[in-house]
Amino acid sequence: MTDSIARQQLLYVQDQASDDEIARQAELYGPLTDSVRELIEVALLTEVDDPEVRAALEHIESAKRLLRQRINPGPYGVRWGASGQKRAWGNAAAGLRNAVAPPLIVECDPDGRARVDFHLGSAYEGPAGLTHGGVSALVLDQVLGAAAEAAGAPGMTGTLTLRYRRPTPLGALHAEARIDRVEGVKTIVTGHLSGPDGVCVEAEGVFILPRWARGKDSAAVSDPA
Ligand SMILES: CCCCCCCCCCCCCC(=O)SCCNC(=O)CCNC(=O)[C@H](O)C(C)(C)COP(=O)(O)OP(=O)(O)OC[C@H]1O[C@@H](n2cnc3c(N)ncnc32)[C@H](O)[C@@H]1OP(=O)(O)O
């Protein structure tokens, strides 16, 4: 096993946190993340005068000093609590503690279907007024991967193929996915992202269970022995 794979496995952790403790943390950190996400949007769009910008910067620097007093060297990883509740709170698309995430709150069925309604603000702009194509890929990767995981056939993205059919606006969007077939360690999933005028991006993904995780259930990946 290479060092990088060993390091990756160490970030799948059973931390035995109780459901109450997880709820407490979600209640504490969720609003912090939402506020930072709004800050990104406001910092992008503000048109106040220079002194106000400088004053806001001082406040932000002060908040950073407060939060840095005790800090996880990172990244967050994936953690399971005592009841098996999973927290991928650092995830770039869906993480509860990641202000970069839109966030996606994906609904899944055990038969391998997943869907999400979400909102992309100005921070996700690519072409003027439109969603960045890489952000569409991020969303679809996450939703297709969630469909595979929901059906008990999870994997890392091996191949993600996208067809951008029409420009994707910013604002209220929808994405959905379903498993097409499972071939051994490979799960093939299809899906799309749509806006008010219909489907904007179609996707097909091949999700592959990594070698180190084969023969283990998902909760056991934290114990790579
Ligand atoms: C429970 C475990 C949980 C796991 C983690 C879930 C995380 C979910 C998080 C979701 C977060 C969001 C998602 C993310 O962001 S995931 C992050 C982006 N993805 C990656 O970083 C993946 C990097 N690559 C790898 O780790 C490995 O190469 C993988 C795991 C992909 C394959 O591994 P390996 O190379 O060892 O596989 P194998 O040699 O045993 O071949 C097996 C079969 O697969 C076929 N093949 C090989 N490569 C590809 C390819 N690229 N496309 C299509 N097919 C491919 C191959 O021909 C063979 O087919 P067949 O001959 O059997 O027909």
Automatic annotation (TrEMBL):
SUPFAM superfamilies: Thioesterase/thiol ester dehydrase-isomerase (SSF54637). The keyword Cell membrane applies. Keywords: Apoptosis, Cell membrane, Cell projection, Cytoplasm, Fatty acid metabolism, Hydrolase, Lipid metabolism, Membrane, Transit peptide. It holds the Pfam family 4HBT. It is a peripheral membrane protein. It is found in: Cell projection, Ruffle membrane; Cytoplasm; Membrane. It comes from the Bacteria. GO terms for molecular function: hydrolase activity. Residues 129-190 form the Thioesterase domain. It is an enzyme of class 3 (hydrolase). Signal peptide: none annotated. InterPro entries: HotDog_dom_sf (IPR029069), THEM4/THEM5_acyl-CoA_thioest (IPR052365), Thioestr_dom (IPR006683). It catalyses: octanoyl-CoA + H2O = octanoate + CoA + H(+); decanoyl-CoA + H2O = decanoate + CoA + H(+); dodecanoyl-CoA + H2O = dodecanoate + CoA + H(+); tetradecanoyl-CoA + H2O = tetradecanoate + CoA + H(+). Its EC number is 3.1.2.2. The keyword Signal does not apply. Belongs to the THEM4/THEM5 thioesterase family. This is Acyl-coenzyme A thioesterase THEM4. The lineage of its organism: Bacteria, Bacillati, Actinomycetota, Actinomycetes, Mycobacteriales.
